[in-house]
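User: Before I run my own analysis I want an independent prediction to cross-check against. Here's the chain; please return only the structure tokens and, at the end, one sentence I can use as a sanity check.
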Amino acid sequence: MVITIQNKKQIQLPTVKISEPFQKNTLLFLDTFSKELIKNKKNYKYPEIISFAFWIRKSNLIGLKKKSNLEHSRLGRGLALHITPSNVTTGFLYSWIFSLISGNSNIVKIPSKNFEQIKLIFNTLKILSSKSNFKSIFKSNKFIKYDSNKEEITAYLSSLSDLRLIWGGDKTVLKLRSFQTPVHALDFNFFDRFSFSLLHLNKQSNYEKISQNFFNDSLVMDQNACSSPHIIVWYKTKKENIELFWKRFGKIVEKKYDLDLGNVYLKFSNEVLNLTKIDNFNFSNKDKNFITRIKVSKLQENIHEIRGKFGTFIEYDSQNFNFLKKIVNRKFQTLSYEGIDSKKIVNFLKRKNINGVDRIVKIGNALQMSLIWDGFDIPRALSRIIENE
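Assistant: Structure tokens:
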């Protein structure tokens, strides 16, 4: 199912087959995939697998199709090469599905690390590959694994690709841009992004639900997802309400979060590195290596360079939205909020002509994928129009 390759001679290219977006058999395949993932109880250990399974249900994809409202005749662009994040276990799946439902054939480079989640996913795909009505899908979609340092493989695949979906840090994106692609080929770069939360809590706030939702946004992916928050800006929130939130959040973390010894070391080294970059800070709280709160008196312009890991969060108090003018740039992706009218945030960004923030979602929805991602309208961007007058 996954082919590990050492050189380009070992590459088995897919049969390039294009279709219209949201093709009927593709939706049937994804719905079947979803049901098989949900049926396997071993997957329930990994919330990211179950979230993905629910996302590819036929009912959800039909809803996304209606929302996309594709008004022209469209076909996929051809063969898509996916260079996916190495530290997000289901990242390659979303990249693949973006392109698959847009009508393309795909070569997907999956993470080299042997994640248990990925093994479970491919056990399910292996079951589906034996079904006769899905054989054409597996012929036109291939999954490969290889050392990223083997640039001749990436160069070869790039030379054959009609489009590339590149997920990674800025250096990765810039490096891949140096590989030659066909003149008609398009690149979609999902580069290094930064996300944060804006919360207004009061006595009536549902602290249990908000804390659980914030846990899902941040620690399910160890804050590695591009949409996971690293900063909490407390908007007009009293200190006692902030502490009540952290108390509830801490209980959830102690119950559900497994921080192994290796990650304790990584967390500590990351904190040390961050503190060399932060001005005017103090520790609000540090408890059992689970939660580290770093309180700052101001948000510096390079705050997007400071990333929390394994439960490290920067806190800042604000009485207005003016801080957005100072810190937000193209690095900012997701703003997750609670207790605030999102229209007010949008209007402020528009009124102040702020060039950043591509998503504004309720707390708990930061990791929820949609077909609008990083400012791209995915089905439109990854397919082409056939004009017919």
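Sanity check: The chain has a mean pLDDT of 91.
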